[in-house]
Amino acid sequence: MHTLQLILVALALPSLIFAHTIPRDAGHDHDETIRRALPSAWYQRDDHPAHALFKRQQASSTFTYPQVGTPAWSAGFPQSTPDSSQLPTAWVNALNAAVAAGKIPNIPPTTLVNGSPTYPQGTNGGDPSVCSGTYGCRIPGDIWDAPTGVLATGFDDGPIGQFSPGLYTFLSQNNIPATHFMIGVNILNNAAAFQQAFSAGQDIAVHTYTHPYMTTLSNLDVLAQIGWTMELIHNSTGGKLPAFWRPPYGDSDVRTRAIAVEVFGLTTIIWNHDTNDWNFGNAGVSAQSIQSAMTGWLTGPKTPGLIILEHELNQGAVNAFEAAYPLMISNGWNLVSAAQILNGHSWMNGTDNGGVLPVAATPTTSSTSTSSTAAPSSSSATRSGANGAASSSASHKSGASTTKLPGWTVYSGLFTVLLGLFSAGAVLF
């Protein structure tokens, strides 16, 4: 059976994967040669077509990734905006299969008008059928709020060689867990900082390859922005697949979000408060203005919990977080990495502090996350309902709502495709 046929069959599978516990490793397993064996118990029958995607892994239990930071490592990735005409066939086939199955809405891209994504006449970005975050609409299933009493820590736009290492050191010294929504080219250009974050046990999530407004892109360009970032993280962590992404500027609609979900299995995390720290030193944004906003949020109600948009792309932003940290603790906030507020797991196929899980493995409900205080006791992160208003700035849109969905369940067909896309190593990429 041809690869495209296999992917079409896999995407149609309705069953769910559940599996066994994998012990937490003592440290990160990101040497050049990584042990990646399939599980002894796979919850599909042995003659299921999905198994054909894993024949290559079964034939060889080890795979060698180029060392992070070497020319061989960087040579495998675009040096700037990805060329959507030069994509791995497996990604394009998976996208085409999702389109053919009616899973990718046919919504026209936006164009930037005075810096704001604008739809063609006749398309309303605020309508639920489009549901653009820029227009204040919240897509059902996306995460906007943390659980009650939880402050979801996370930082956008890293790694930056000049600023990120100091932040990572502060986080480590204070045992603060955080999710770093990383840009692909920044990883490529700051390999040492990336390795520092990963080695310290920080969570890594996708923030696209070059930070565009996602709704302005074609389907293939969306595929390229997410896919190359995910592949770069995968190859730089010994084969781990990030489970979350954040669209730059919060700009996503049901089309772009569907590509992230249906092709790559990613969950979207937005935010419900914005420090504007990305614009530090301009437009009245200062240490004082950020501290004032932080004080209001941190001393205010604990329902919903906080997902504050923060950055690691300038020293002012880093300093502002460090200055606010004592106030977070004194006001009793439970600091939890943003990628772990849903179910305590930030990777699709790996333990939070170590190796790669077998294909069918599912972590148990016991969280292995670390925080300054206890991790949430249940999967109580709230996802968006439908059409909530957004809290926004000129460049970043956000909002909040509530809809709980079960954590860490993925369709077997989708997960099969993901492992086919990212686990074949040199054969596909």
Automatic annotation (TrEMBL):
GO terms for molecular function: chitin deacetylase activity. The lineage of its organism: Eukaryota, Fungi, Dikarya, Basidiomycota, Agaricomycotina. Residues 358-401 are annotated as: Disordered. Its EC number is 3.5.1.41. Keywords: Carbohydrate metabolism, Cell membrane, Cell wall biogenesis/degradation, Chitin degradation, Cobalt, Glycoprotein, GPI-anchor, Lipoprotein, Membrane, Polysaccharide degradation, Signal, Transmembrane, Transmembrane helix. GO terms for biological process: cell wall organization; chitin catabolic process; fungal-type cell wall biogenesis; polysaccharide catabolic process. It comes from the Eukaryota. Its main location: membrane. It is found in: Cell membrane. InterPro entries: Glyco_hydro/deAcase_b/a-brl (IPR011330), NODB_dom (IPR002509), Polysacc_deacetylase_ArnD (IPR050248). Residues 1-19 form the signal peptide. Its cofactor is Co(2+). The chain crosses the membrane at residues 408-428. It catalyses: [(1->4)-N-acetyl-beta-D-glucosaminyl](n) + n H2O = chitosan + n acetate. One of its GO terms (cellular component) is plasma membrane. It comes from Jaapia argillacea MUCL 33604. Residues 360-401 have a biased composition (Low complexity). This is chitin deacetylase.
